[in-house]
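Schema walkthrough. Field components (list of strings):
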Amino acid sequence: MIEINACGLSCPEPVVMLAKALKDKPEEAVICVDAPAACENCTRFATNAGYSVEKTTQDNKTVLTCRIKR
Amino acid sequence: MTEKKFLIFTGLIIGVISVALTVYGNPANMGFCIACFIRDTAGSLKLHSAPIVQYMRPEIIGLVLGAALSALIRREFTPKGGSSPLLRFVIGFFVMLGALVFLGCPFRMILRLAGGDLNALTAVIGFIAGIGAGVFFLKRGFSLNRAYPQSKVEGLAFSILQIVFLIVFAAVPTLLVFSTSGPGSMHAPFLLSLAAGLVVGFFAQKSRLCMAGGIRDLFLFKDITLLSGFVAIFVAALIANLAVGQFHLSFEGQPVAHTQHLWNFLGMSVVGFGSVLLGGCPLRQLILSGEGNTDSAMTILGFAAGAAFAHNFSLASSGAGATTGGKISVIVALVILTLIAFFGTFKKGENK
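Field assembly_structure (string):
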């Protein structure tokens, strides 16, 4: 499983990291973000790339779990 | 409402408000201009003494406070900073020089285009080229490194500064300098400007509207979500300008503009390049500062310093065109931004 820590990085670095990670179509990738814009951008990117996205938020940090849709 | 629909809705509101501000007194095609307004505010605080561009613009105060209000209501107020603050200051400084050679930020570039100012077209092409340069480095891993959580006091400091400005403006305006002629003397009534800033700041925070982000995302991910807000501002402002008879299609004779295409192009390429390195256009930096992002607040201080230098050393253009100093500063800006981008991409430290 791919894990990315994108906390504290400004736009659009988190999405660029996620895009690189999803390029080879892994089954699952997890990215941690702490900016609402990054959260929305990553969710949108993963959804468009054919992944389902599950969010869990704790202390201003959101963990997005992206799973490939079958 | 989906993200894109909300962005379009926000863009339409902003386009109409922008034209309304010009009807009520702001300079033509300058309902909003983040670069010009920060420059005017710097002038009113005597950071420069160009007599025609000194006015504390309530729009700027409103934008920051509107964004802060929205962020607090939506529980998105998160004080943070420490992501290369000095480099952000420097990038902000040069972005301002580029904007003042063109005579407008990306926001005003759209408004100029919507008013029929064709000089903004070359600027749009320059802006896109600058964004392309930024994207080149982003794709290769450019980063200004991480920001970290900070105290509430630090996160609120910039918004508190805006409240202080507001109080000074309302209670002891004699402390400030106000232009009696030129663009600085042209402004909508205080409360209207403030309200416009608050509304736009509020909606821009929620929608994440960003003038540079739209084109950047199109390059990077073929995603047009953010771009839709940019286009909506243009469409709404265009229709509103046509409705009130403020649309004049030409290169020549445009208000607060010049026709030197090369310098319009290069000025805005500096702004596009710098905005991508910063992670957002000047408007977005104001919004982020309201959300508690102190790196963005540092960037805005860089804008203000750049504006002061631009007018203290005759680097800003006028209707007659770019100055020799302005031309040199744009070239210097492109070199400095390229160096920052290069080192931030290929020679960055281990602060990952």
